[in-house]
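Please produce the structure of this protein holding adenosine monophosphate.
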Amino acid sequence: MFMVLLGPPGSGKGTQAKLIEKQWHVAHVSTGDLLRAAIRDQTDCGMTAKQFMDRGELVPDELVIKMIEGRVGGDGCVLDGFPRNVRQAGALEGLLTARSWRLDHVVSLNVPNEELVRRLGGRRTCRECGAMYHVEFEPPRTEGACDECGGRLYQRDDDRETTIRARLEVYERETAPVRDFYSVRGLLRDIDGVGRTEEIFARIVAQVSGAQ
Ligand code: AMP
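Below is the modeled complex.
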């Protein structure tokens, strides 16, 4: 199964993608995670990407498309954070078609902007394993440390207030048109992204099962 998860930053794509990965046994491919790993490893690609990411802008298409090419595999995957614009959506379609695969589902998580700002501003990420917490809604058992692996929690540079606003603007300008791309292909499924994690996941399962 090939699935795309759309939604603004902070809409819960990463959290839901992990549950989808388990439920349908598909690989979770997150371009944001891959880029952050490249930055941690100080690769050329990571160093280029960092300049854009710190400003809340999109990393150049060529770099991101190249990065996912080898990761979209035969057993299927859930794409989280890709495609981010219509050009990337076209590239993905080309890549799948060339291998006689097709996209099965596109799920869009919808959350109001003010809620997104609240979620992202309080978000803390584990440096070691990438697990996410929220200072108010989902604090770790020990302040500053990951419940899973004990790694140190930090606030991503792009989770600061001014960058958050920039990322939301970029989403409206670049990524919202991707909805139309998939809507005309009859693939788009809108999901209310407000509520408890399990409730939202149940909505996804219901939509995806209903569409099969
Ligand atoms: P995310 O973790 O998905 O919120 O992504 C964090 C940042 O990585 C974004 O604000 C972009 O700068 C960059 N990024 C992630 N995915 C893409 C993509 N598909 N195209 C361009 N830039 C991306």
